[in-house]
Amino acid sequence: MSLTQEQLSEIEAARSTPRPTLRAVSEGMEAHLYRAHPVLDHGFIRVVDYMGDDAAIVQAARVSYGAGTKHVSNDEGLIRYLMRHWHSTPFEMCEVKLHVKLPVFVARQWIRHRTANVNEYSARYSILDREFYIPAPEQLAAQSTVNNQGRGEVLTGAEAARVLEMLKSDANRSYDHYEAMLSQEGQQGLARELARMNLPANIYTQWYWKVDLHNLFHFLRLRADAHAQYEIRVYAEAIAACVKDWVPLAFAAFEDYRMGGVTLSGKAIAVLKRRLAGEVVAQEDSGMSKGEWREFEGVWG
Questions:
Q1: Cβ-based neighbours of 166, under 8 Å, separated by 6 or more
Q2: Which of 70, 154, 159, 245 could form a disulfide with 28 if both were Cys (CB 3.0 to 4.6 A apart)?
Q3: Which PANTHER family match (predicted)?
Q4: What confidence score (pLDDT) does residue 38 get?
């Protein structure tokens, strides 16, 4: 994990001068404020700011001013009801702002979640550091034979060594050329906004990412899932650990209904009813496609 000396000084200054506040405070999230959690080889996530807590969700749902928010069991029941019935607005009352350092190719995948506010480090204005994501050997895998966007068996031996060497040498060569193009020694030097186009997708960038809890849960449901790409999944898992401490009641409901739950189609429900009635149902007479049936059997056998 690489924080600049300026960033470290900024964090230390912020942590050394706490201020009293009248706003809602989550003790769990306070512990994460300004602490960088390492991800991958050079990346991290850190909580810069947040708004709201479990009580804020309940307050918004009841449109109250603190009424009823002291009864944890009642609050938990209401939050679970809201999650179970897909009520989104109360969860939008909580927000979090993160500072994230991540490889560019992960950022391009991440930015598909368009329901957040993002401000990225500008390579038009500043020079990127010589930092690249190089996968650990156990993350070097062949193309999956059953999933067109996933990984299969891990590469081993000479092939794994050759791939790692190419990743390292190509990244460093591209950065060498980047520096050579920018250099003003004996030449004008190429503009930063043009020189950056020669950099590889595994170079690290940074951004501030602000999102409400409803949309953050959607992000985590997709990116913290076991089927998500490893490199973005580890970021999602690091964020999820912070969210669990921030809004424990809401996160427990999210884990139960979203991460641990299953959405059934009308056809799947019909098949389950037929099975419960003692009927043997095959894919051919289920009304489901082979892909749907494979997913159905993956859950229900």
A1: none
A2: 245
A3: FLAVIN-DEPENDENT THYMIDYLATE SYNTHASE
A4: 95
- Is residue 36 located within the same domain as residue 154? no
Sheet architecture: strand order including 95-103: 36-39, 43-51, 95-103, 204-212, 117-120
Check whether 37 is labelled as a binding-site residue: no
Residue/partner pairs of 71-79 with CB below 8 Å, 24 or more apart: 72/249, 75/249, 76/249, 76/252, 76/253, 79/54, 79/249, 79/250, 79/253
Residue 265's identity, in one-letter code, is S
For residue 114, the tally of other CB atoms under 10 A from its CB is: 7
pLDDT digits (tens, 9 = 90+) for 212-253: 999 999 999 999 999 899 999 999 999 999 999 999 999 999
CA–CA separation, 117 vs 280, rounded Å?
Answer: 51
Query: Are residues 14 and 140 located together in one domain of the fold?
Result: no
> Do 159 and 29 lie in a common domain?
no
Alpha-carbon distances of 168 from 174, 232, 289, rounded to whole Å:
10, 20, 44
Is 26 known to sit in a ligand binding site? Answer: no
- Same domain flag for 77 and 221: yes
* Judgement on whether residues 19 and 113 belong to the same structural domain of the protein: yes
Q: pLDDT (tens digit, 9 = 90+) per residue, 135-155?
A: 999 998 988 887 777 888 998
Residue 114 marked as a ligand binder = yes
pLDDT band at 66 (very low <50, low <70, confident <90, very high): low
Number of domains within the chain:
3
Are residues 48 and 162 located together in one domain of the fold?
Answer: no
274 is in an annotated binding site: no
35 labelled binding-site residue: no
Torsion of CA 219, 222, 225, 227, to 10 degrees: -140
pTM assigned to the model: 0.90
Retrieve residue 220's tokens.
């985590």
